[in-house]
Design goal:
The chain has about 375 residues and is an alpha/beta fold. The chain has 2 domains: about 230 residues, Aspartate Aminotransferase, domain 2 (3-Layer(aba) Sandwich), CATH 3.40.640.10; about 120 residues, Alpha-Beta Complex (Aspartate Aminotransferase, domain 1), CATH 3.90.1150.10. Helices cover about 40% and strands about 15% of the residues.
Length: about 375
């Protein structure tokens, strides 16, 4: 039977009547911007992440840009990040006028290698942006140590990792600031664009709050050059209803990851791994295969959803050609870009569907032998 890569609607199908009621209540209220649902969601996410303060914004990309601006990062500065991630991470750095500096990744976790970050620090470095890729948390203790030793700010791009943790501490609670995206395909989805910045610093959170609304507290007095990036009340209402479900959805994803292993998928491809003390939430389930493109074609022909994410890493993208990177500069990043393939993963994925996936991978392996 066909198996989709994602089933976005399936995880919240039983909640739709409640969500529709919440949306209708917002419509009836006439409050659509900076309203009570948004403010309540900020409090609830601050508590859920353990960060202390949360500021709702228009989307995950704005969350990154506003975080960098809140830290005063701009022209002449360098920010170290990964080249194996979605473009928005490095785009945000460039948007504020700083230069992205790409460090290589750990081959097991797909996340920034603290040793590579250390080697990339220069006198112009102002910050590190760590990405918790595919729902697996980066080495935050190691990256925090590097940041502390060099006096650097640390931002967590947790767009794919709501509910992930390191040694029991939630993703988003390590950095000076952390950002979340609630794009509809994320493990914690909205019904459109929405984002959040969290921080343990009341001062940084307040600065983001000013920046998201034209540098103003009350629409009449303007203190900073900001932007217009406010989460609307409808998205906030949807997210408030989904927030209590995220832990269960993440548990469903983790259970599916365990079943892939039990069904023998690891005999055919290299499975994703969790670092010691890490809690992965499997926003995406990305395996590694040396003949990735051939496997992807075979799975697609068999009706199995799959996708190669970030197959052109950021340091080799045309937009960053002026930075001078060449193929071979980041070998582990490039190998992951060549070998990574996302297989079906969603909270309601069941054993029968996963058996189909593993059978299709096995058939592809036999055909290639």
């Amino acid at each position: 039977m066909p198996v989709p890569l994602m089933d976005i609607r399936g995880q919240y199908a039983d909640l739709l009547d409640e969500v529709k009621r919440s949306v209708c209540e917002v419509i009836d209220s006439g409050r659509f911007i900076l309203g009570p649902n948004m403010r309540a969601l900020e409090e609830e996410i601050a508590a859920a992440t353990g960060a202390g303060h949360a500021v709702a914004v228009g989307n995950g990309t704005d969350a990154l840009v506003l975080s960098l601006e809140a830290l005063g990062i701009g022209a002449g500065d360098e920010v170290i990040t990964t080249a194996y991630t979605f473009y928005a991470t490095a785009e945000a750095i460039a948007r504020v006028g700083a230069a992205p500096v790409f460090a290589d990744i750990d081959p097991v976790t797909f996340n920034l290698d603290p040793r590579a970050v250390e080697a990339a620090v220069t006198e112009r470095t102002r910050a590190i942006v760590a990405v918790h890729l595919y729902g697996g948390p980066a080495d935050m203790p190691g990256l925090s140590e590097v940041a502390g030793r060099h006096g650097l700010a640390l931002i967590e791009d947790a767009a794919q990792a709501f509910g992930a943790a390191v040694n029991g501490r939630g993703a988003g609670s390590f950095g000076d600031l952390a950002t979340f995206s609630f794009f509809p395909t994320k493990n914690f989805p909205a019904f459109g664009d929405a984002g959040m910045v969290v921080s343990g610093s009341a001062d940084l959170a307040e600065r983001v709050r000013l920046l998201r609304f034209h540098g103003s507290r009350e629409k009449r007095r303007f203190e900073l050059v900001g932007t217009n990036s406010r989460m609307d009340e409808i998205q906030a209402a949807v997210l408030r209803r989904f927030l209590p479900e995220v832990a269960g959805w993440n548990a469903g994803r983790r259970a599916a990851a365990d079943r892939y292993r039990a069904l023998g998928l690891g005999d055919l491809v290299e499975l994703p791994s969790e670092a010691p003390g890490a809690r992965h939430v499997y926003h995406l389930y990305v395996v590694r295969a040396a003949a990735r493109d051939e496997l992807a074609r075979a799975l697609s022909e068999a009706g199995i959803g799959c996708r190669a994410y970030y197959d052109v890493p950021l340091h080799l993208q045309p937009v960053f050609a002026h930075l001078g990177y060449r193929r071979g500069d980041l070998p582990e990043t490039e190998r992951a870009s060549d070998e990574g393939l996302a297989l079906p993963m969603f909270p309601t994925l069941d054993e029968a569907a996963q058996t189909e996936v593993v059978a299709a991978v096995r058939a592809a392996a036999l055909a290639a032998a």
